Each structure stands twice: as structure tokens, then as C-alpha cells.
Amino acid sequence: MLKIENINKTFYSGMPEEHKLFNNFNLTIQENKCTAILGPNGCGKSTLINMISGSLPLDNGSISLKGTKISDLVEEKRSNYIGKVNQDPSKGVSLSLNILENMSISLKKGEKFSFSRLLKKKNKEFIVSKLKELDLGLENKLNTQVRFLSGGQRQALSLLMATIKRPELLLLDEHTAALDPKTSKLIMEKTIDLIKREKITTIMITHNLRHALEYSDRIIMLNKGEIILDIDSTAITEDELNSFYNNRILTNISAAS
Prior knowledge:
By secondary structure, the chain is α/β, with parallel strands linked by helices. It has a domain at about 1-90 and about 165-255: P-loop containing nucleotide triphosphate hydrolases (Rossmann fold), CATH 3.40.50. The protein contains nine helices and ten strands. The protein has a six-stranded mixed beta sheet, with helices on both faces. A hairpin with a 2-residue loop joins strand 9 (about 220-225) and strand 10. The protein is globular. About 35% of the residues are buried.
């Protein structure tokens, strides 16, 4: 479904600080599955999905989505196929607009539209129906500016906006990390309900090993731009995953320091 082939990425090329992160890296992501990507800070998790989304260029290599080479497309063009939810709940929304306006804009992403026709009755009815699926009461706050929503409500709205046109691929960049544990669990449950219902292929970056096990179908662990673990989520326990992480990553970090 998503094929990443022989990609390379070097930062500060030609300088004393030069750092080659990915070296002929390959990865295939299965359709209609949620793949969790784990690893320590600096291992390449966010760099990888930023290269997929187009916000960060490849040095070379290719990325294809359902047979279409998207690595040649600019980020704006890729956004027609790819949805993304960031760690910061405010990044995926326009704080000065209300819920209805935010949702209406996402509904017309990639299309030409006038703002006067954006809020027509048919669109509003569809938006209300999608908000009701979240079961958070946001359909009763259509005229509320997003700046007045809680972090969890904003992130739920960001998730819905990123998926309202059912993208081919959804990228979740630690999208619950800025939330308290109770809200984080709620948003994860809403996320999985939505992507399972809509059958959206998803890549989820997380530091939460329990979330990776509970909500994903496949776990990939990165370290220094390389895959050190690739396993079905049901084939490993939390203790085993913790042990693997500690032995393969934390031990090396301690030794290096």
C-alpha cells in the first residue's frame, strides 16, 4: 500500500555536524492496518513521517502510495491523499474560526470554493453527523471558536478534520502526547474507532508502549534510522516489549554516555 524504497536522509551535509539518519531505508505499510512506530528521541520517527507527508524532502529514494509515486509531489498535493494529526492540539485547527468553519474548510480541502458557499445546509448536516460519531457533544458547539475548546476537544476535532475526506493514509505524530492520561486514552479510543470504521491505513508514532500494543496491528521499533523490531502487536507482551527496548536501546544509550 505504502512503499518506501531506498530513501536516504542526511542532516548538515558537508559540515562537521553531518548526521546521516537514513541509509537506503526500506519499509512497506499494509493497507487498512494501524502500524505503530516506536523508538527513542532522534531515532528518525518524526523525520520518517515528515518525509512521507512531504514537509521534509528526501535526499534520494522514493515513496509510493497505492502505486503512485508521491515523493515527487509537493506537500500540498500529497495532502489530498494523506491526513496528519500533530502532537500540538492547536496545529491541526484554526483557533480563530468556529467548529463549523474548521470542519467546512477540511471538507473542501483540495477543491476550489468560496466561503459564502462553504457553509451551505447540506454540508452542515453532514458535518453534524460526523461530529455526533465522536460522541463528545461538539455538534452542539458549532459556533464556538476553537480557541475555547479543551486540548482533548481540539485533538478530537483535528482527527476528524484529518479524516473527513477519508484519506488513503493517516499519519499520527504522537497525537496524544500533550494530553493528560485520561484524555489521552479517550482520544486513542476515538482514533481507533474512527480508523477501523472508515478503514484508513494509519501510521502512529508513539512513546507509549502500552498504546502501541493495545491499539495497533503492527509494531516497528527504530533506532538510529534502522528497524530493530518489526512484529505483529499480538505476538509480544508489554513486558517483552519493555525488555527489548531496555536491552537494545537504553543499554546502548547508557554505554555511549
